[in-house]
Amino acid sequence: MTAFDANWSLLTPEMVLAALALLVFTIDFMTGIHGKKPFIGKLSVLSLLVTAVLVLFMNNSGGQIADLYLIDSFAMVFKLIILVGVAMVIMISLHYLDRNEEIYQGEYYSILLFATLGAMIMVSSADLITLFIGLEILSISSYALVGFKKHHRHSTEAALKYVILGGAASAFILYGMSFLYGLTGSTSLLEIGQVMPTLFADYTVIMTISLIFMLVGFGFKISIVPFHMWAPDVYEGAPTPVTAFLSVVSKIAGFAIVLRVFTFGFLGVHEEWVMIIAVLAAVTMVLGNIIALTQKNTKRLMAYSGIAQAGYLLVPVAALPFIGTFSINMILFYSIAYLMMTLGAFAVISLVTEDAGTNDLSSFAGLFQRAPYLAISMTVFLVSLAGLPLTAGFIGKAHIFFGAAAADMLWLAIIMIVMSVVSFFYYFGFIKQMFMTAPKANDEELKVPTSLNAVITVALAVTLILGILPNIVLDVFNTFNWFALF
Amino acid sequence: MMLNILTWLVFLPLIGAIIIMTIPKENVNVIRSLAAITSGIALVISLVLWAGFERGATGLQYATTAEWFNIGFLQINYEIGLDGLSLPLIVLTTIVTTLAIFASFSIEKRVKEFYLWTLVLLTGMLGVFVALDMFLFFLFFELTLIPMFFLIGIWGGKMKEYASFKFLLYTGLGSAIMFMTFIAMFYKAYEAMNMQETTFSMIRMAEIFADPANPDVLTGAVKGALFLALFVAFAIKLPVFPFHTWLPNAHVEAPTAASMILAGVLLKMGGYGLIRVGVGILPDQAARFASLIALLGVINIIYGALLALVQTDLKSLVAYSSISHMGIVLLGIASFTTAGMQGAIFQLVSHGFISALLFFMVGAIYERTKTRTISELGGLSKSVPILAGFTLAAAMASVGLPGLSGFVSELLAFIGIFGASAEILPAATVFGVIAGLGIILTAAYLLWAVQRTTFGPMKEKFVGLADARPMEYVPMIGLLALSIVIGVYPHILSDVINTTVIDIVSKIGG
Questions:
Q1: Nearest C-alpha neighbor of B321 from the set B364, B375, B362
Q2: Three-state secondary-structure class, residue A151
Q3: How far is CA B510 from CA B58, B414, B422, B427, in A?
Q4: Short-list A83, A181, A94, A88, CA closest to A132
Q5: Count of C-beta atoms within a 10 Å radius of residue B380
C-alpha cells in the first residue's frame, strides 16, 4: 500500500454525526447543566435523520477506504437500522427525561449520539482495529448511559457491573484478535480471510483459541447464553430508554460485526465454527425463553426475551456458510422487525412503568381500559415477538426457519419453533394483565405524549405492514450485493 | 376489480369488526346488531354458495389464485376454493357463529370487544375452510388462536385464565408442529421435483406426492413421518386422546357463545385438516396408519364416554361427549370407504349443530339456576319446560336417535367400518363392535344426565324461573331444525359431499 490516498468523503455521514454530537454537547454547556432540554433531544433526532439521509446518499458511491472501511450495502442497511433505532430511542427518552429531572439531559443526548457513531463505525469496518475502536466507542458510551440515574442504587450498580463485565469481554475480543495479528501480521479481515484455511491447518490450537475468545467477547455484546448474565441486571437498573437502546441498537450492531468477522475472516474454515454457533443459538433460545417464563419484572422479562431473540438471530449466522447471503437477508429483515416490535414495546413499557412507579408486570393491569390504543399496540408488538402470523416477527421467523431447513439444520429450526411456543406463555402474560385483569383502583386514563405516540404508531405500522407485505423490504434486499467485495 | 365471492365471504366479518371498532363502546345495541348483521350476511353468502354449488362436478369451485408474497424462493399464494368437503363446513361455520352471536345478546360485559373478537374468529375459521395454499391455511389456523384466547380469558368462568393459557399452549404447539410439517413437505416436494418446482398449493402438492419426478426422495419412511406429524398437529385440535386435555378446561370455562363455536366449529378444523391435508396429500400413508387411526377413534369414543359418565358438572359432561363423538370422525376416516368418509363429514357437520345446541342449553340453564352441578339440578321440566324439552331433544340428537342427524353420521361411519377392506383395516370388525358398544355409553350418560336434571322432583329454589326468552328460540329452533333436516333428509348434505368423497376415497383404491 502506497501513500494513503483515501477518499475521506466517504466518511461524510460519520463526520457529520460527530460534528452534530459535539454541537449538542456545546449547546448543552451554553445552556447550563441542569433543567429540562427537550429541544436538545429534538435536535438529536434531527441530527440522526440528517445522517440517515447522508448514508442513503453515500450508497451510490459503493467505495471503501483502503481495506479498513467499507461503504457497502450491508453497512448501509445496518446503519439505517441503527439510526432509525436511535431516533426512536430518543423519542422515547423525551418523555422519560421529562419525568426524571436528575438526569443531565444534554450529556445524555450527546453520549447517545456518540454511541451511535461507534455503532456506525462498527458496521462499516473491515479491519480489526477499526472494528475495535467502533466497538469501544459504543461500549464506553453505553456504560455511561446505564449509570445516568446516578442517585439510584440500581442504576449505579448496573453501570458498574456492565463496565467490569463489558471490559472483560472487550479484553477477550482483543486477546483473540492479537493471535490473528500475531500469525498473519495484518489486521485486515480481508487479508486474514485469504490465508485463513492454511493458517488454521498450521496453527489449529491457536486459531481455535482466537476464534473462541472472539466469540466469547462478541457473545457478551449480543447477550447470548452463556454470556448473558449481565443483561437482566443491567437492563433492570438502566433508565428504560437506555435499556431499549442496549437491547436493540447495541445488539444489532453486535450482530453486524459478528457477521463481518465470520464472513470475511473465518468463512474459509466454517466447518470449525458452524456447530459452535448452532449450539450457542440453541442454548440461547432454550434458556432465554425458559428463564423468561419466571420473570415478573417487565425489564428483566424483556432482557430474557431479548436473549431469546438473539438466539433466533444467531440461527442464520450458523446457516450462513450453506445458504450464503440469504442469511444476510434474514438477519436484516429480522433486525428491522425486532427493532420495531421491541422499541414499540419499550415505548409502552417506559410510559406505563413510569406512570406506575414500578417495573412490576402488574403495572400493566387493566391497561386496555386505561388506554386502549396503547394496549392494542402492545398486543401487536408482543404477538409479533411471539412470532404469530400477520406480523413482521412471524415473517422474520418463518424466513429464518426456511433458511435453517434449507441449510439442513432442521433440529435447530425445530428448537426455534418449539421455543416460540414456550414464549407465548410470557408474552401472553403481558396480554393477560392488559386485558383480563382489572385496573388498580386509583389508575385513571393514561395520556400518551405525542413523542411516544409517534414511536408507537411508526412501530405498529411497520410491524403490521411488513407482516402482510414483506416484499416491500425483501425485494429491495434482493437487489443488493451485500458485500461489494465478494 | 370484481373480487371473488369467497374472498368477500372470508373478509366480510373482518370488515364488520373494523366497523365495530369505530363505534363507541356505550352503543351496545348498535354493536350487537352490527355483529348480527355481519354474520347474517356471511350466512346468506354461504347459503348462496350452497345453492349455486354445482353438484356432481369434480374439482374446485369459486376458486381463485393470486400471488401474495415470496420469501427467498418460497412463493406464497392467496389460493382459495370450495369443494364438497369445505362447503358444508363453511355453512356450518356461518350458521353456528350467527346463532352464537344471537345467543350472546345477554352478555353485558365489554360487549364491543366480545363481538370484535367473535367476528375476527369468524374470518379465521372461514379462511381455514377455503384456503388451498398450505401457508395460507396455516395463517388462518393461527388467526383463530388469539380471538379464542380472549373469548375464554375475558368472558370465561372461574378458571378462565388457566383455561385460556392451556388452550393457547396446546393449540400453539399443534400449530407449530403443523408449520414444521408443512415446511418439511414443501422441501420434500421441492426435492422430489428435482429442485425444479416450488409449491405450497395443496392441489399441486397432492399431485407431486402421488407422482414425483424423483420417487427416491419420497420414501415410505419420509412420507410416514410426515403423515404422523400432520396427524398429531390436527389431533390436538380435534382432539384425539392423549392430546385432549385442553378441551374440557376450555369448553367448560368458555362463555356459552365461545363454547358453541369451539365445539361447533373449531374442533372441526382438526377433522377437516386431517381429511384435506393428511388424507388428501398422503392418502397411501393415511391408509397405512388406518389401524392406528381407528384404534385412537375407538379409544376416543370409549374414553370420552366413560369420563362423561362420571362428570358432576353438566358442561364438562357435554365437553367430554365431544371427545367421544370426535372418535366417530376418526373411525369413519379410517375405514377408507365412501360410506365411512361420508359418515366422518356428516359427523363433523352434525356434531357441529348438536354440540352447539347442547352448550347453548347448558348455558341457558346455568344462567337461570346459577349452577351446573348435576346433583343440584332437577325437576327442570316443571320449572322451565321449554328449555328442558329442548335439552332432551338435544340429548336425543347427540345419542343418535333415528330421524336426527347424529343417527345418520353414526350409521354411515359404522357401515363404513364394517365394510372396510381387510387390507387397509384388518381388525375392522373388532373396532366396529367395540365402538358400537361405546355408543351405548353415550345413551347412558346423556339420558342419565337429562333424567337427573330435568325430571324428578322440582327443587324449591327453581320455582318461578323464567322460561325461554324469544331471542333464545332462534338458536334453539335453528340448531334443532338443522339436526332434524339432516336426519330426515340426509340427501341434502350427501348431495354436496358425494363427489368429493368419492374422489378422496378413490385415491386409496377403496
A1: B362
A2: coil
A3: 18, 16, 11, 16
A4: A181
A5: 27
- Distance CA(A124)–CA(A137), nearest Å, equals 14
CA B136 – CA B11 distance, rounded (Å):
14
Rg (CA), chain A: 21
Give the pLDDT confidence score for residue B2 in this predicted structure.
Answer: 56
**Cα B35 vs. chain centroid, distance in angstroms?**
22
Mean pLDDT across B313-334: 93
Q: Cβ atoms within 10 A of the Cβ of B455, count?
A: 15
Q: What is the pLDDT of residues A102-128, one digit of tens each?
A: 888 888 999 999 999 999 999 999 899
Shortest Cα distance from A389 to chain B (angstroms)?
6
**Largest Cα span, chain A:** 74
* Nearest chain B Cα distance for residue A197, angstroms: 30
Of B138, B145, B154, the CB nearest to A435: B154
Q: Is B136 on the interface with A (CB under 8 A)?
A: no
Q: Is the pLDDT of residue A1 over 50?
A: no
B63 or B15, which is more confident: B15
End-to-end CA distance of chain A: 21
Distance CA B280, CA B282 (A): 6
Which grid cell sits at B378? Answer: 332437577
The answer to whether residues A222 and A215 touch, using CB atoms and an 8 Å cutoff, is: no
Between A409-413, B42-46, B55-59, B359-363, the lowest mean confidence (pLDDT) is in B55-59
CA distance B28 to B30: 5
Query: What whole-number distance in Å separates Cα of residue A320 and Cα of residue A325?
Result: 7
Over residues A21-47, the pLDDT tens digits come to 999 989 888 887 777 888 888 999 999
Among A329, A388, A466, the strongest candidate for a mutation testing the B interface, having the largest count of B CBs within 10 A, is: A388
CB A18 within 8 A of CB A46: no
Residue B79 in grid coordinates: 389460493
Q: In whole angstroms, what is the distance from residue B112 CA to residue A213 CA?
A: 57
Average pLDDT over residues B317-342: 92
Q: Does A418 touch chain B (CB under 8 A)?
A: yes
Q: CA-to-CA distance for A433 and A105, rounded, in angstroms? A: 33
Residue type, A439: P
Residues in contact with B24: Cβ distance below 8 Å, sequence separation at least 6, in sequence order: none
**pLDDT tens per residue across span A419-429:** 999 999 999 99
CA atoms within 13 A on the CB side of A313: 32
Decide: residue A313, CB within 10 A, 0-12 exposed, 13-18 middle, 19+ buried.
buried
CA–CA min distance B328, chain A (Å)? 30
Point out which residues pair with A188 in neighbouring strands.
A127
Instruction: Say if residues A24 and A40 touch (Cβ distance below 8 Å).
Output: yes
Residue located via cell numbers 458452524: A274
Q: Are strands B61-71 and A64-65 parallel, antiparallel or unpaired?
A: unpaired
Q: Does A410 touch chain B (CB under 8 A)?
A: yes
Alpha carbon of residue B174 to chain centroid: 15
Report the pLDDT averaged over residues B340-345: 93
The shortest CB-CB distance from A425 to any of B72, B165, B180 is to B165
